[in-house]
Amino acid sequence: MTKIISNLNVTKLVVNHPIGPDNPPQLTPCTNKTSNKRLTQDVLQMTNFAVNWADKLTDRQLDKFVTDGWMVIDGVFDHLALQALQAESGFVDYRDAELTAGVRISDIRGDRIRWITKNFFAGYFYLQSINALATLFNQSLFAGIRHSEAHYACYPVGFGYKWHSDNPAGRNERVISAVFYLNDEWTANDGGALEIVDKHGIHHNVMPVANRLVIFDSDLQHQVQIAHRQRYSIATWMRRDGLVPFVEEG
Ligand SMILES: O=C(O)CCC(=O)C(=O)O
Ligand SMILES: [Fe+2]
């Protein structure tokens, strides 16, 4: 198993081991600095992840999304929710990704992933928040989204993800892709930018900085440039089909 260097090295979070569903990381949020009381993930609630998407998304951004096919939202979650997602990303039991369009994955993508299920404390709240965003897209853009799926991803140093669209040839179930980034203090020298070709053929580089959500039409071509630092994210798709969310054993 790949050794994961936790994001916690660069966050303020305090974690006791071992981490698992029965023993979630202990949090010492900034707001609680003066108290000795250790809060745990159990204190997390959906309200910590609630985002007023209608407020966050200006009409201008929605217009940009329709005409250009992509947009970025920064400062998505509050401090506690972000820390919880960062903590969870550092302790996920990552697996190799499966085949993409029949091509051996290791030739195309270097990320290691884990699909988010009910067993994830922070990730599951994240997914519910994304579903609220999907509802907004359905109302304002008639996007026809029926459910969302997401996985944590970790790109080891020296890996990226070659040019692709998120709908392999002949498929169209994925309507909108969204990637949420978890990396504190990421700089241009760390590589790992998401390079995306918009609807007009213009290339854009998006840095994978913490608390940023990049949203794009799943048919757009994009690649992840080689990361020079371990790179953490949550890749998310809003789908038009009614597939039952992914369940993974073990
Ligand atoms: O992490 C990113 O910036 C993009 C990942 C991606 O393209 C994918 O997982 O399909
Ligand atoms: Fe992708």
What does this protein structure show overall?
The chain has 250 residues and is α+β, with helices and mostly antiparallel strands. It has a single domain, classed as Jelly Rolls. It is 21% helix and 24% strand. The protein is built from 5 helices and 13 strands. The strands form 3 sheets. A 7-stranded antiparallel sheet has the order 3-11-8-13-6-5-4. The chain has a 4-stranded antiparallel sheet with strand order 7-12-9-10, with no helix packed on it. The protein has a two-stranded antiparallel sheet with strand order 1-2. Helix 4 packs across helix 5. The longest helix has 21 residues. The chain binds 2-oxoglutaric acid (AKG) and fe (ii) ion (FE2). The site of 2-oxoglutaric acid has 10 residues, from strand 12 and strand 13. Its cofactor is L-ascorbate.
Counting structural domains, the number is 1
Q: How large is the count of helical segments?
A: 5
What is the end-to-end distance? Answer: 14 Å
CATH topology: Jelly Rolls
User: Uncertain runs with pLDDT below 50, 5 residues or more?
Assistant: 1-40, 246-250
Element string (H = helix, E = strand): EEHHHEHEEHEEEEEEEE
Output the strand order for the largest sheet. Answer: 3-11-8-13-6-5-4
Shape: globular
Q: Please tell me the CATH architecture by its name.
A: Sandwich
**What is the helix content?**
10-25%
Count of distinct strands: 13
Assign the CATH class: Mainly Beta
CATH superfamily: q2cbj1_9rhob like domain
CA radius of gyration is: 18 Å
**Quick one: biggest sheet?**
7 strands, antiparallel
How confident overall, as mean pLDDT? 80
Name the hetero compounds present.
2-oxoglutaric acid, fe (ii) ion
What structural class do the secondary elements suggest?
alpha+beta
Beta-strand content: 15-25%
Keywords: Dioxygenase, Iron, Metal-binding, Oxidoreductase, Vitamin C
Domain Fe2OG dioxygenase: 146-240
Protein name: 2OG-Fe(II) oxygenase
Cofactor: L-ascorbate
